Amino acid sequence: MSESTARVKALAAHEYRAAVRSKILLVLLGILVTITVVSVYVAAVDHRSKVADYAAYRAAAQASGLARIAPSTLAPLSLLRGALEYLEIIGAVVAITLGYLTVSRERANRTLTLIRSRPVTAGELASGSLLGAVGLFTTLVAATTIVGVVCVGLIGNDWINAAQGFKLLLAAIAAIIYLGAFYCVGAIATANTRVAANGLMIALGIWLLVVLILPQLGDTLDADNQIPGGLFKALTLDRAGETEILKHFSTYETTRISIEEASFAKHYERFAFAMTEVQDKYRGFSLGRLLGAKRNDIGWMIFYSFALVFGLRWSFRRQPTIPQETT
Amino acid sequence: MGNHVMTETEQPSAPAIELEALCHSYGDTEVLRHIDLRIEHGEIFGFLGHNGAGKTTAVNILTTLIAPTAGTAKVCGFDVAAQRHEVTSRIGYLPADVRMYPHLTARENVEFFAKLSGVKKPSTAVDETFEYLSCSDLADKRVGSFSTGMRQRVGIAQAIVHRPQVLFLDEPTSGLDPVGVRQLRETIIRLNADLGMTVFMNTHLLSEVAKVCTTIGVLDHGELIYKDTIAATTERFPDETSLEDIYVRMERSAS
Question: Alpha-carbon distance B108 to A178, whole Å?
């Protein structure tokens, strides 16, 4: 192990340990895990009766000698929808808080001075801190995913298969990347402000915009969402007809899509909802087809992640090593 | 007490610290003005000056925390601006008002900094350092519950755990009681005698400087107005009874 790798590892372990000893962070994590588990539990209870109904239908169909039995349309992974949404909204707040604490802690303790008087580069400091945070997010996502799957299996009486498990794994990786991105937002905003609390406020403003406002704007402006059940369905138009009509509103559509594309949260949500079959249209897709359909969201997530990691390194390089503000 | 980072055979011919026409400004305010200074290995250097004289800025430059506006600063022959890694591998630093991580134990704090300095066996190094400083009883207690004196000892431990060649201490006695001041004084002398560490110490306590330092420098409004050994200084000012009197006389002459 090179000296640089050893330093990054030490910084990552330090970040992880500081995070799990932070009371405010533990409270936020506790809230997130509790509501996530409750949401999956409630969905699983409801799902259990649907599984029983389908089993009864299947038994009755077999008994009556029906030649063709309709396959189940139940999607056990979709029970995790609540968990994904809470992770998207509250998880991002947890990640921002951790990013803020990383920077403000070093300032308040005046330990940034001690760290930078060691042979530690700003890049190593950024990488170590981010890896420590990612370690925490991995623990969080793994725990909620395992509890969710067990809930779906035991309470919902519907165990997921290997293919679904792999899709869930990809959704979990996306969740970790998503949380890592918001960690960067919190740390970047705090590192670039003299008063750390102002950085937290800026980061929460970005969260409000990216997680709540932009996706909602995109949805509200969607022509198809103007009446319940879908405008084009009500007009009995197929996909070709819908495309033909939208051609006449190309500027409007481009603006609306751009608003949605600007949101990292929207890309994560689209990807995670597709992988967990929350969106009906992706049910039964093979993994290859699914990844092909979601390549745009994958590309944007990678782009945003790289940009934020670069921003984190840049911010850590330019932040003053001599404490100027401690709160 | 072993050497964990630097090899004992490493004996650079360059001076421990060398400043040439060093300048630093914060905006329009000039804090350091064309300072030339040379400190040899093995010296205990006391850097004196009133508040705002520029002592801490000089230490911040020498520890690579800020870059000089003009001139050069070298530690063990390495330029602080261009060879940051080489410099930081050879120095230990105890800033004024050190706080450390309050939620960690003293051992965890020092071990973290040992790892950052590339110490091969951090746990062993930490144990040896605490033993050397006679503060093993503090090792497994959280730093958040420590008094200023206890925290200062942990601060010293983190500064020397990697056995640096040059140790920078910024106002190390501030906030310490007389017993703490005496312990610190003894520690500095031992570090210098046992490990051959060069010590660069910013301080206000002239009585301590007289008891600990081999050389002094006086900074006044960013200018180095005096530098010599303690022995030469007392010879040069035979009419003054204490270093304090000498210092006051120098400051008056400068102004």
Answer: 31
